[in-house]
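User: Hi! Is it possible to get a structure for several chains at once, not just one? Here's what I have:
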Amino acid sequence: MSAPHERTSATTKSDGTRAEDDHLGGGLLSAGRAQDPNYVGTHPEPRFFVTEESDEDEFGGRTMVLNLGPQHPATHGTLRVVLRVRGERILAADSEIGFLHTGFEKLAEHMGFQQWVTVTDRMNYMSAINNNVGYALACEKLLGVECPPRAQALRVILSEFSRLADHVICVGLAAMDVGAFSLMLWSFERRERIYDLMEAVTGTRLTTSYTRIGGVFRDAPPDFRQLVESLLEEFPRFLAELRGMTIGNRIFEDRMRGIGAISADEAISWGLTGPLLRATGVPYDVRKAEPYLGYDQYDFDVPTQQAGDSYARFVQRIEECDQSLRIIRQALDRLPDGPVMCDDKKIALPEKVEVYQNIESLIHHFKQIMFGHGIEPPRAAEVYVATEAPNGELGYYLVSNGEMNSYRTRVRPPSLYHFAVVPRLIEGGMISDAVAVLATFNIIAGELDR
Amino acid sequence: MGRQLSATEIIDHLAERYGDKITVVTPPGASSRPYVVADREHLVPILDFLRHDAALCFDFLMDVTVVDHLHLEIPEIGERFASVYQLYSLEHNHRFTIKARVPESDPRCPSAVTIWKSALWGEREAHDMFGVEYEGNPDMRRLLMPEDYPGFPLRKDYPLRGRGERDAFPQYRQHRNARTAGEPSGGAT
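Assistant: Yes, the chains can be modeled jointly so their relative placement is included. Here is the combined structure:
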């Protein structure tokens, strides 16, 4: 096994300075590999941080290297975990990601601020609204605008529904991965009901692109209240069924308890956030720590577990569903009337009717849409805005060049930092335990690779 | 919960000890937060101070990334790259941003892995995208791009559609050849 580390540094660096060709990135082409029909690319050699002296145990059993992924039912996305196993026991693990890398951050440098909203919901496709809202908040802070109260409340309601959808799917899939298949079907059924609401409000089920800078792109439909009421009514029954199937279930608890446990200090050092951090007993929630969208006016708790294992993470997600329902109930009760877009004509796109009939609106429309104009924040302004996505802290770091495109857009996805710790947690366990850890970590490949 | 400090108070506290080693930058815009820039030689001691000082206590390294300042020159930074650290303190509930200057001719930066483990993958991705080598990080393999990928895609002089690296992927080549059967194969698409 050759050391991958050396090979990488050989292609990127030679005696401190980069070869001209390498620096320009034409290395692959000049090496003639583009023309070589037999070239199939390389994968990095797995690098195991746990090394053992002996390859054989006392009975002569050999270790073997096993791939979990990139296509595996338990990874729920394209990511690769390489395991060195002896029998069912994992001795060492390494991971490889990037199969879904799409260059979203590079795209942001070539698209207008308003346009990039459509990219954000491709990142965590399980809870697209939360990504939309996080990005819109970052842009609003960069530009110094605020969205009107009705848009805030709508964002809160849909964010919490999105969180519910994300959590119930994670919980259902986690249950399926340890053998309780029915829960997966139940939770998908429940998510479809939430997607019905999403479709009614945003026009799409999965990739919503609902927010705009300064508000949301359209108001809720007239029957919005009934739709939300009916969901609020049936959801607690579903959660009770979920709890009845899992909590206190001997088989389920044996599979989940004590698996992949992480301490609070370690979790903080590894940068875990969201349900994973709260499952270790740390009550950190961005909605409480730095309230946005008026979250400080809602009455809700931050549940925590103590164990930090797979079971705690599972229970944590179910308990967060209760709190989301509480927030939705309060937000619906005091849903204010009014506009859903801010009245800053430099930011809010005018109505199409206005554009066709009013010269001033036509000019505003032109100025926002045409290349070289658009929304232009001050030069060298920069913000980092954190929001609480279902998986944890979702941060957007924007740097502006004073032009219509963002100069640098960085997404801090929770899954990236979560997945870094997975190989360390599954070492020493069984292969089936690795599945239980992966399931409760809820790694979304879209935001992991961006 | 401890006492929450504003960014200005954090900078004042930091300046008491490292006043000659940091430069304060206040970006424009009403809601932009001031941050500090340091030379990379002094970065690790400053980060260590930020992590362990009782009044600051930044126990989270939320994010590590790099900004390529090729088309956005900021006099206080003055180099091509800046390595950006987003810090958060759970105890005091405050946030802070610190940047390190990384010159183009020698893109290396000391690693923060000894202080926060989240730097492991944050720095790995920054290296993958910008080619900044983090010294002391035990795992500097590429994270998202293929291992033999020659360029650093988030650099500003790297074109949006690449430099023809896609041609090296056999699946893509087959797909393209199937579409343009009979035509001589062109260069970068």
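The domain at 7-151 of chain B is CATH 3.30.460.80 (Beta Polymerase; domain 2). The radius of gyration of chain B is 20 Å.

User: Great, thank you!
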